Amino acid sequence: MTEASPEPFGKLLLDARRARGMTLAQVSASTKIPVSKLQAIERDDIENLPGGIFTRGFVRSYAEAVGLDPQETLAEFEARFPDESSVATLHATIEGRANEEFVRRQRRAKSVVWLALLAVPLVLWVLSALLPSDAEPPASEGVVAAGAELATGTGSEPPPPPQPAEEPAPPPPVESPLRPDPAPAEGVEPGVLTMEMSATADCWVQASADGDRVLARLLRAGEREVIVAREEIGLRVGDAGACAFTINERPGRSLGESGEVVDIRVTEANYLSFVAE
After folding, report:
1. Which letter does DSSP use for residue 239 in this model?
2. What's the CA gap between 238 and 204, in Å, rounded?
């Protein structure tokens, strides 16, 4: 007897949704997942899903919305689609390494700032020690000579009238100590791209800094994340209408409509095109 083929994975979620009397639009409003992606899950249409951690998050959120156990449903999905499980594991490994590299970069940047702050007082002290101090003006010879004659003159002859004193020589000009260039004002560091994201609703976000992935998770409503890079920030948003951001402390423009999946690349050359007018 031929063994019956297992029930399609997407039908598990479809049956659970119908049992609850929910429409796809209601599930989409609850999970912030576009209706097209929910339909792809129900049809086992993996090719039309974003893949990796995004697809896993969609499955988990869908299961929770229709009353299924999220972990058991995700385990069933990984058993049916092992390739997706391998990709998710690889993404998690890459994300962990990227986070470690990001922390190391932040520490190096802080060390450079502290060294610069410590060096400024030392430079000022060396310059003040090398530059000459204010010179005392020389005493007038005419005044000294007149004083000497008054002290040694006889009582019989009145001393000659004192000669007018010569104007004292002006003191040599004192050079002002060299001052170091003013430190950049607090705020944006030159040559650095800083993006701060905030979610107005639950939104999947994936970000990279200079080619290294530093973020891949569901950003809950009200949560914030900051991405710092030298050359490029890559951003993928699962719900463009739910993600607000600033670039170098300037408000960003809208990335798209609610439920729209958007990919952008921000560099020093083009970041102004993402700033709100």
Report:
1. -
2. 5
How confident is the model over 68-96, as pLDDT tens digits? Answer: 999 999 999 999 998 765 444 444 444 55
Q: Residue ranges of the domains in the chain?
A: 7-130, 193-274
State the pairing for strand pair 212-219/243-247: unpaired
CB-CB contact of 225 with 196 (8 Å): yes
The type of residue at 83 is: D
Which residue, 90, 12, 16, is CA-closest to 51? 90
Amino acid identity for residue 35 in this structure: V
- The DSSP output letter for 67 is T
Instruction: Give the three-class secondary structure for 34.
Output: coil
Helix (H) or strand (E) holding 45: none
- Polymer length in residues for the chain: 277
7-130 belongs to CATH 3.50.50.60? no
As given in the structure block, the two tokens for residue 20 are 């609850």
CA angle 53, 200, 20 (to 5 degrees): 65
Q: How far apart are CA 123 and CA 234, in angstroms?
A: 40
How far apart are alpha carbons 178 and 151 in whole angstroms? 49
C-beta of residue 240 within 8 angstroms of C-beta of residue 257: yes
Q: Which two tokens stand for residue 201?
A: 């609703």
Measured distance CA(35)–CA(29) in Å, rounded: 9
Centre a 10 Å sphere on the Cβ of residue 24 and count the other Cβ atoms it contains: 16
Question: Taking a C-beta distance cutoff of 8 angstroms, is the pair 166, 144 a contact?
Answer: no
- Residue holding tokens 């060390």? 111
Query: What is the spatial distance between Cα 198 and Cα 43, in angstroms, rounded to a whole number?
Result: 32
Encode pLDDT of 155-172 as tens digits.
445 555 556 555 555 555
DSSP-derived secondary structure letter, 48? G
Q: Residue 218: beta bridge partners?
A: 204
Q: Which two tokens stand for residue 18?
A: 């119908």
